[in-house]
């Protein structure tokens, strides 16, 4: 591929990226302390996937798997294991959503702050990238059956604690901004 | 100039006049003064180039220099309009703007330095110099726009409709300019390079039709794409602009100081746990 093709391809790809970014998205909106309230409501039920963890854990337990392997006909056991993996993947996707909501909240706070630390923002950006890569790897291992389902418990416990901590913190933020926001929000 | 070129030049000038009319009727200069200046610059350049063609002839050396000068002058005005696009809307978010302008400034300096060094190595001919510089400036403009939009998207800050239309138009012009200039420069420095060498003067009569044809095609594509972008801007300005939105209400600064490290710490722990999951 010569220079001519590379530059042309680069221009087309970049143009495509710009146009894609310019398409109005539902979530992209003008950030404001007044919009924080709705974002808060959207982001705070971060434990909505985590809340189902107990049922999921039961459904995915190793004892159940063993029982299936030993007692069910092979094709039924295979089918059941496949479905359990699919459930685990959906659950992992839900946890990803929870994580994204919390990270988004962090970005909204940054957007609404009069001072922002470039160190903190760079760190959060890198953490987000790292998370995406790790999530893809975990998802891949889960799909190929190389990841024990029980290990998901560690993940969900962490998201749950994170959600609770942010819940408390955001209540404090709401209280702090109550005096500065329009009536409907401050109330 | 053939009849097609004359038609295109007059059409472009008409479009530019209509655009300038819209810009001042909607008082765009109050919110985006550099974009308003850019529209005036392109109109002025078109008039100056036209007058030069009339007075000195389409194929004269003066017309040649004035044309390339106007191209670079418009590119500079466009760059300033992009800089304004970056600033407008984000400056209200003081913390983010303080972070973003440094990133964009460093990126701009790097891209301009690259454009300058790229143009520096070219044969000392205005057309080759001009196409190289214009290509690099257009590419830099798309990169800056892409980075700006990525940052805005990351923080969930959408562009206002007018700014969005301006960005689409500029992006389209720049993309066409990059592709056109790459092809043009490739032809100039390749099969038609003899045209720029005084030692090859004997070949000039034979090359003249080819040069004219290449320039005609490029002018047609450039002017059509430019009219398309002007159409986008005129469409965005067809209705009166909405009242400028109020500045966002910012949070007390201690909220960020306390929350951000806590969030990052938690996110890092989350990643550590994912790494643990992946360990054999």
Walk me through what this model shows.
- The complex is a heterodimer of chains A (187) and B (280).
- With 187 residues, chain A is mainly alpha-helical.
- Chain A is built from eight helices and no strands.
- Chain A has one domain.
- The radius of gyration of chain A is 22 Å and the shape is flat.
- Chain B folds into two domains: 240 residues; 31 residues.
- In chain B, helix 1 runs antiparallel to helix 3, helix 3 runs antiparallel to helix 4 and helix 4 packs parallel to helix 6.
- Chain B has nine helices and no strands.
- By secondary structure, chain B is mainly alpha-helical.
- Chains A and B meet through helix 1, helix 2, helix 5, helix 6 and helix 7 of A and helix 5, helix 6, helix 7 and helix 9 of B.
For the CA atoms, what is the radius of gyration of chain A?
Answer: 22 Å
Give the distance, in angstroms, between the N- and C-terminal Cα atoms of chain A: 62 Å
Mean pLDDT of chain B: 84
Number of strands of chain A: 0
Shape of chain A: flat
Question: What multimeric state do the chains show?
Answer: heterodimer
Q: Give the low-pLDDT segments of chain A.
A: 43-47, 179-187
Strand proportion of chain B, as a percent range, falls in under 5%
Counted up, domains of chain A total 1
**Could you give the count of β-strands of chain B?**
0
Provide the helix percentage of chain A.
over 70%
Give the topology string of chain A: H per helix, E per strand: HHHHHHHH
Overall tally of structural domains of chain B: 2
Helix run count of chain A = 8
Termini Cα gap of chain B: 73 Å
Compute the gyration radius of chain B: what is it?
Answer: 23 Å
Compact summary:
Chain A is mainly alpha-helical and 187 residues long.
Characteristic terms for this protein:
heterodimer; A: 187 residues; mainly alpha; 8 helices; 76% helix; flat; disordered C terminus; B: mainly alpha; 9 helices; globular
